[in-house]
Amino acid sequence: MDQRTVRFEEVALPHLAAAYNLARWLIHNDQDAEDVVQESFMRAFKSFHGYYGGNSRAWLLTIVRNTCYTWLQKNRMLMLSDPIDDKIDELGLDFADPELLFLRSVDARIVRASLEELPVEFREVVVLREMEEMSYKEIANVVDLPLGTVMSRLARGRKRLQALLTKRMGKEASIELSANA
Amino acid sequence: MSCQQTHELIHGYLDGELDLVKSIEIEKHLEQCPTCTQNYESLRGLQSRLRDNSLRFDPPANLEKRLRSALRREKEAQSFVSRWRWVIAGASLFAAVAIIWTVATVASRQSPDDVLAQEVVASHVRSMMANHLADVPSSNQHTVKPWFDGKLDFSPTVKDLSQQGFSLYGGRLDYIGNRPVAALVYQRRQHSINVFVWPTTEAPVKTEKASERQGYNVIRWSKAGMNYWAVSDLNLAELQQFVQLLQEQT
């Protein structure tokens, strides 16, 4: 095997878990996520000559993210009906439901379902920030947005996520009640 | 720091993206503001919930293997192209040259008929220019036909068609297609018609083939083991009429 392939595998394969996790969260489907990851790796391999070291994870995840968007567009699944207006401040001063303080004990299924419901523009920054623990700067590179926008997307994403969780927790609670009754 | 400011910066604080000064200001505010503290705790709870590994999707066990073999295939395809790049380029160039050469040769290759037609027309032109239409100038077919005896290994049919408007002018020896041939000369008004005749073993060409070369009309046909080529500056319709008459006579 030649040096370039060895080097590429050394650089890219350690980020396979991150690549798959991102693709799976954006695509919502195991098989398609696998295909998109494979396509991303092929794209990355072909453009490997343009990689001069540095943050290999951000480099690879940028390609994965773009490949996901291409796939979503091709499959008409990109729900960009309302372009996100990053200037709107939807944070307001209304505070979180106190119930959310007990979030630590909430079923993982509810968290997962709520995150899946989040629009993709918010979902991707939340996944990159919380699951990959990327810095604002890294996220800004991957999703190609200014730093300030990354922070506001994260803030709004969390806010929406809290609302979705509250709603789901309320539903679950009433289901439990009716089941017990 | 106010609640509004804290609200804006709390995410940066949570994510460790604030500078030291701003972080200390936030901490001071949180110490004295239970509402903001509750909001912060709620966000922290969300964050730790999202960081739970159970939310991650793990890649299928065979995905890495699948990627490695896909990379290998890709590499092979690439190196095949790069290793054989010059050979492929050379082969393509060779193929292109070969195609051009073939097309050019085929296009420029003349059929035997074309060569003959050229010779026939050249002969006709030569006979006019040298004012050497006939070796035996005679309108009498019984004079012209015997004249060829002993000069050719065949005896061409010679017919006078002056009744039909094409008068026999004479006969001449000529040389076409590497062999001596009989040239019969007819006149229609001021136009001369050369009819070249020689024997052939090829299948007869029953239908006449008319063509135009260098402004002359050429009609060829064969009959009874003889090749006939009629050339003239006469218009095609009259030349065809002449050929018709000649065919009826032979």
Please specify the SSE layout and strand pairing:
The complex is a heterodimer of chains A (181) and B (250).
Chain A: H1 3-12, H2 16-27, H3 30-46, H4 56-74, H5 108-117, H6 120-131, H7 136-143, H8 147-180
Helix pairs in contact in A: 2-3, 2-4, 2-6, 3-4, 4-7, 5-8, 6-8, 7-8
Chain B: H1 3-14, H2 20-32, H3 34-50, H4 63-83, H5 85-108, H6 112-129, E1 136-137, H7 141-148, E2 167-176, E3 179-188, E4 191-199, E5 209-213, E6 216-223, E7 226-232, H8 236-249
Antiparallel strand pairs in B: 1-2, 2-3, 3-4, 4-7, 5-6, 6-7
Helix pairs in contact in B: 1-2, 1-3, 2-3, 4-5
List keywords for this structure.
heterodimer, A: 181 residues, mainly alpha, Rna Polymerase Sigma Factor, Chain: A, Arc Repressor Mutant, subunit A, 67% helix, B: 250 residues, alpha+beta, Phosphorylase Kinase, domain 1, 3 domains, 7-stranded antiparallel β-sheet, 51% helix, rod-shaped
Work out the oligomeric state of the chains in this entry. heterodimer
Briefly note the structural class of the backbone of chain A.
Answer: mainly alpha
Mean pLDDT across every amino acid position of chain B: 87
Low-confidence stretches of chain B: none
- Under the CATH scheme, which class of the largest domain in chain B? Alpha Beta
The radius of gyration of chain B is 49 Å
H/E order of the elements of chain B? Answer: HHHHHHEHEEEEEEH
Number of helices of chain B: 8
Mean pLDDT of chain A: 84
Count every beta strand of chain B, where a strand is a DSSP E run of 2 or more residues: 7
**CATH-defined topology of the largest domain in chain A:** Arc Repressor Mutant, subunit A
CATH superfamily membership of the largest domain in chain A? Winged helix-like DNA-binding domain superfamily/Winged helix DNA-binding domain
Describe the structure.
- The complex is a heterodimer of chains A (181) and B (250).
- With 181 residues, chain A is mainly α.
- Chain A folds into 2 domains: 3-74, Rna Polymerase Sigma Factor, Chain: A (Orthogonal Bundle), CATH 1.10.1740.10; 98-180, Arc Repressor Mutant, subunit A (Orthogonal Bundle), CATH 1.10.10.10.
- Chain A is built from 8 helices and no strands.
- In chain A, helix 2 packs parallel to helix 4 and helix 6 (120-131) packs across helix 8 (147-180).
- Chain A is elongated and about 60 Å long.
- The termini of chain A are far apart.
- The mean pLDDT of chain A is 84.
- Chain B has 250 residues and is of the alpha+beta class.
- Chain B has 3 domains: 3-55, no CATH class; 63-108; 112-249, 2-Layer Sandwich (Phosphorylase Kinase, domain 1).
- Chain B has 8 helices and 7 strands.
- A 7-stranded antiparallel β-sheet of chain B has the order 1-2-3-4-7-6-5, sandwiched between helices.
- In chain B, a hairpin with a 2-residue loop joins strand 5 and strand 6 (216-223).
- The longest helix of chain B is centred in the middle third of the chain and has 24 residues, at 85-108.
- The mean pLDDT of chain B is 87.
- The interface between A and B is large, with 53 and 40 residues.
